[in-house]
Structures are given as structure tokens and as C-alpha cells.
Automatic annotation (TrEMBL):
Subcellular location: Membrane
Region annotation (Disordered) ranges: 1-37
Entry keyword annotation includes Transmembrane helix: yes
GO biological process, one term: defense response to other organism
Keyword Endoplasmic reticulum among UniProt keywords: no
Protein name: Late embryogenesis abundant protein, LEA-14
Keywords for this protein: Membrane, Transmembrane, Transmembrane helix
Transmembrane regions: 45-75
Chief site of localization: membrane
Amino acid sequence: MASPTQAPTPILQKPPGYKSPFKEPTPPPRKPPTRHQKRKHRRGCCCICFCIVFIIIFILIFVAAIAAGLIYIFYDPRLPEFHVGSFGLNNLNVTQKSDGVYLNAETIMKVEVKNESGKMGWLFDETNIQVTAENGDLNLGSTTMSGFEVKEKELKELKADTMVRDIALNESLEKKLEGKEIVFVVEITTKTGVEMSGWKSWKIDVTVLCGDKSLQQLEARDTPNCTLTTLKWIKIHI
């Protein structure tokens, strides 16, 4: 005799608000990263970036140093040399007037610019030449020359003349002029750059002072000392 089929057991619905007496295990909450961990991560990134930048700068400096060394060996660069080849006073006239003593004079000089470099030339912009005496107490005029070039192993002579009229003299300057003891200074201001294999560099300011010699010494062909100043602080005795 077959057993009667059993009816399925109905699923009991939990009443509203029912709480199970058995607690289900819940995973522990994940702790957010601390500030110390964030700072450590940022410091690590900064260190890596700094190292990369430092390596790049080091490589660039190394390559530039090698290139500069090759250029120096191949072109043999040297600064231009300035000298006052000759200097004299012409038409010197000291006149006594009712209100003092006055000077009329002309200076005649030759400025030599020498390029000792074997494979590069020097380019010069408009050049101003001024003549003073006795630490600037006496101004003997100035002249301006157009731009010029001094090629490889070349010596260029620049003729520069100045003229002054009715310059007041004190007693000390008058006596020194009569005895040819007055000390002159020739100041040359210009801009210069180099030319190498058709390439021309930018130009920088250059000031050359030649002096510390009296008129008597200059007329005896005693060459005055010259000092070249560039970038307003680099001084070179030539």
C-alpha cells in the first residue's frame, strides 16, 4: 500500500522587528590609512622625482662640459688684446683769460686690437673712445667709431682723434701740462662677440681702460697698461 505524499513544510515568515538571538560574524572594518603612511608615500615620490631631475641636470652639465672642451681645443679661443700704440697732443694752446686759464687741444692716438685666436674672429659694435686725465679731473673729449671685425691672427689699428675747446684749467693741471707730467686714461666701451665657422654669438658689453702713464712717457712710446672688464665684474689685465 503506497504511503500518502507528505505536504511541504511551510516557511515561517519573521515578524516585523524580529532579531535573531545568534549574532552573525561580521568582517572587521578596514582601517583608513594614517597620515604618517600618506606622508611617507609622498616623500618617496618626491625623492624619486628629485633623483630623476638631478640625474638629467648632471647629464646636461656633463655633455655641455665635453662640448665646451672640444670647442676650446679646436678653436683655441682667446680674448682680444687692446693696446694704445701711440698717443700725442696736437695744437696744445693754454690761454690766460680774465676769468681763468683755458685749454684748447687735440689728441691723436692709435688703438691696436689684436686677435690671437687661430680659428675664430671677434666682432665689435659701435665703439666709443674717451680720453681723460688726472683721475677724470680733465676731460679731453671722445670719439665714436663704427663697428668692425678682427679676423683670425689679425692686428687692427684704429685711429682715434679727439678735440676740446675752452676747457678750464686750475693751477695744478696747468703746471702738469707744462711739464708733461699729466697722466692720461683712455677708456674704450663697446660690445663684442665671436664668429666661428659662420656662426655668430650674441654680443656682451666690454670696457677697456688703458692708462697710468704720463704724457712724457706716452710720447716716448711707453705702452700703458690695459684692463678689460666684461659682465661688469670680470676684470682681465691685458
